[in-house]
Amino acid sequence: PDVIIEAQFDDNDAEHGQDHLQDTLTDEIKKLSLDTREKGKAAAVTGVHRTKQDDGPKVSDPRLLPDEFLQRTAKVVYILEKKHSRAATGFIKLLADRNSELFKRCAMFSPVDHRVPRVYVPLADCPPNFVTKPEAYSQMLFICRIVDWKEDSNFASGQLCKSLGQAGEIEPESEGILTEYGVDFSDFSPEVLECLPQNLPWVISPGELAKRRDLR
């Protein structure tokens, strides 16, 4: 009953009428029934059952299966080194359940990078009028840093660090990417700037040009 037979209908079928088409379908169904019975007999003889998704043998004890049919599994037991900055760029919004106690204390932070989990952030970190006018911040980018993720929670806990600006603009988007990857983009210190030539405009002296290879 789960088999669909597809038949072509052309001008010859129109000439012979509907009976010819019906005979064609009947023949196809008979052929399929014979093939199914033959496969069933072969499976009964070998004692092995197969499915469309898995051509491997079905056994009750997985230890009897060859290695090629096994999916290796593992369990994380310890984090040796934290490589991620724990910072993410995203948007804040109110929780869906307005009657819960959590709604009065936290907002939901949704990262732009979907590899980062959603985060509960305190309402105290959000703008003062966020609860009354959440739509005003629907397109505002924020930086959130994850501080904890409990085993019994679907969402991590974090703190809002900074408001970047409107999503889609170059400056906020660039600052968010640099922060996520831990790139220090702050201004150079006075000590670093003192190492640079102070007499401007500065040019390469002829003596330096004479002893260096010009790659310009």
TrEMBL record:
Membrane spanning stretches: none
Record's GO cellular component terms: P-body
One Gene Ontology term from the biological process aspect of the record: mRNA catabolic process
Keyword Metal-binding annotated: yes
Localization (cell): Cytoplasm
Keyword set includes Isomerase: no
Domain CSD2: start-end pairs: 107-182
GO MF term list: 3'-5'-RNA exonuclease activity; metal ion binding; poly(U) RNA binding
InterPro entries assigned: Dis3_CSD2, NA-bd_OB-fold, RNR_Ribonuclease
Coiled coil: none
Pfam families: OB_Dis3
Alphabetical list of Gene3D superfamilies matching this protein: 2.40.50.700
Keyword annotations: Cytoplasm, Exonuclease, Hydrolase, Magnesium, Metal-binding, Nuclease, RNA-binding
Domain of life: Eukaryota
Protein name: DI3L2 exonuclease
Organism of provenance: Ptilonorhynchus violaceus
